[in-house]
Amino acid sequence: MNNLLQRITTFLVVLALPALVIFATIHFGNKRGVPQEFEYQNRADIEKEADHSEFEILQQEFKRPQDLTAACLSCHNKRDDELMASAHWKWERETNLPNGRGKVSIGKKNLINNYCASAESNNGSCMRCHIGYGWEDKSFDFNDPTNIDCVVCHDNTNTYKKRKGGAGMPSTADNASAEFPVPDYNYVAQNVGKPLKENCGFCHFSGGGGNNVKHGDLEEAMLDCSREIDVHMAKSGQDMSCNDCHLTERHNITGRAYSVSSENNNRATCDHCHSATPHNDKVIDSHNHKVACQTCHIPIYAKANPTVMYWDWSVAGRRDENGNPITEYDVNHKYSYLSIKGHFVWDDHVKPEYFWFNGTADHYLYGDTITTVPVQINTLMGNYEDADSKIWPVKVHRGKQAYDSVYKEIVNVKVFAENKGEGAFWEDLRWDTAIELGMKYADRRYSGKYDFVATEMYWPLNHQVSPKEQTLQCSDCHTRNEEGRLANLAGFYLPGRDYAKGVDYTGIALIIISLLGVLIHTVMRVIARKH
After folding, report:
1. In a domain, 11, yes or no
2. Is 156 domain-assigned?
3. What pTM did the predictor assign?
4. What DSSP string runs through 315-332?
5. pLDDT per position as a tens digit, 409-434
6. If 0-12 CB within 10 Å is exposed, 13-18 middle and 19+ buried, where does residue 373 land?
């Protein structure tokens, strides 16, 4: 009887117990909790709006858009003060730059980018996306409340449009066209409401000169898309509008675009709606400490239409044998070369690049000397040791743009004018004149010598969230495969990707020695028992 009990005990200790430990580890390690159910009511479904068609002041015939603004402010008093304090109005804000660079006033108004270089000196084109009327030059009056364009954000008819090249003005009887007719101000004024996707998208979908050129995760397809494109904005899903996430109080809209922002505040984040532990799974939820939600939930971007990944201005200016500008297309019928803009590379269904990001960013400022190439037009700050940093998916836009080869500074370029002969590059295709005029408008020094330099610009991704079934899996990151999502993100230890041969071989040796020890001990016990 004792021998039988000893054999059973030996079996349990040597075989059954290790097997049970291995089974439990695998079973419970792979077991996942059920994600939290989340119910959300869109703001448009719960907030009441006034019927503006009933207001007598909006029955008048408006001769100018400024007259419509005056009518708005006669009831919505003090709203002009809120708007004129916003970044959407001023296109700049006081901000503290990282690395001890101090406080500066920066924004779209005075920052360099690697698309069309800068807004300054290109007011006619760029200021079409300003929430004001007629910012043609430096004489624009930022203190005149009637220069505010209320309906560009609040028009719910989808008929109000600012004309191209109008510095934010809609068409008049003198310059109207079939594409940009004179707005019916009475119809628009009597049908205003909370901003729709179309209002925000008018500018944010088309930055850089066309649909999805800049962001990669913001484009026209999201106005009527499937859940595969974006689970939040899909008509078949939550059908959310921009202001459901970008909460707004007194015209202060939450959200940061790090092409023009620097500080980690006033952001629109996932946990404004979702909790910090939405998966109901300790293993997955623990990733939130160092991994942004977007990293797993935006596995690809530019899902419906391509985005520009590379823009080379250095080859712009070519003409055909007859002296005319050239247009060339790629296999997907997107322009790959324009004389007025240079060479483009587009792509869709793009895998993001990944960076440590703590919500702050540095920027190339006027007067900064080029010391490294490629030049970082903006720099996302963060690293593994930083408690606020998380791994973030990013679109990196690369290109070549003009710089002063003597002073080693990126230059402003005047690209837009309504007529030939005014020195704008898009009209005259002359770099020397276009740079000289751009730099003069920005009150910057220029040596008269230029060349082209490689640049990079970083766009953290926040939109085009995929359905949960299409999110990244563990093996997409925790792998030694060179195609692993985090293969190029250094500075930390990632299980499944990183290893030290000495440690691994020592561990394997210890396991083998332990197993041999158990086996030898068992054999010796069996032999001893027989004797």
Report:
1. yes
2. no
3. 0.89
4. GTT-B-TTS-B-EEE-TT
5. 999 999 999 999 999 999 999 999 99
6. exposed
